[in-house]
Design a protein that fits this description.
Strand content: 35-45%
Shape: globular
Largest sheet: 6 strands, mixed
Distance between the termini: 73 Å
Helix content: 10-25%
Number of helices: 2
Amino acid sequence: MDSTNRLSAIGMALALAGVAAQSQAQTTIDVNPGDAWIGYMNVFEIPQHGGGYVFGSGWGTADLCATWAGSVLTLSPNTIGDPDPFWYTPSGGPGSVGNKIMDANMYVETTGTYVNEMLTFQGRVLSNTLVGKVDANGNGWSSVAFIKDFAADYSSFTQVTMALSPGDFSISLFTSANPGHHIQYGFETIGPDVWITDVAPYGNIEVTAVPEPASLVAIGLGLMLLRRRRL
């Protein structure tokens, strides 16, 4: 193939790739309190006790300490009201120290909905006063936004994550072509359990949707009118 034909072939390949990219389905999902949020908790030993896996089970989202107030989601350290030493050292009560690492997953799950497309999950972190804190054992918390794409039998998955830092976040994953796969998107917060009366000093994370452009315009107009009135 001479150089002219080679360039022509490359140009055609790029053109076809461009057409494919333009025709690729894309969906963007915002943080929405109206979605069907569910919870799952994985429990581990603290690192000082080896860090081994203990159990996992479905939990209510409020039990994850993930609660809605209007359009704002608040993620807090997990609390367990059981005084058993299984959960706390020396036992549960004010001033006790968490004896387990709680892996709290709050998410929406769909099956066969987002197939062979670019899926984006986005939101706005209003504040994060949780990450960076540690308990008396030196164990702290992390929290991420995620998209997970599970095989039909949940035997494997791919994922993307992003740490929840103040400001907007946006993550994208090209989903499987298998119509039986399961998509999960949401938040994962990992850290030690805390007695309920001791939670406040450790802070929390507040998340909401990215404002629509129209909302931003309305806010801008409101500020302009307020400025004019003051003048």
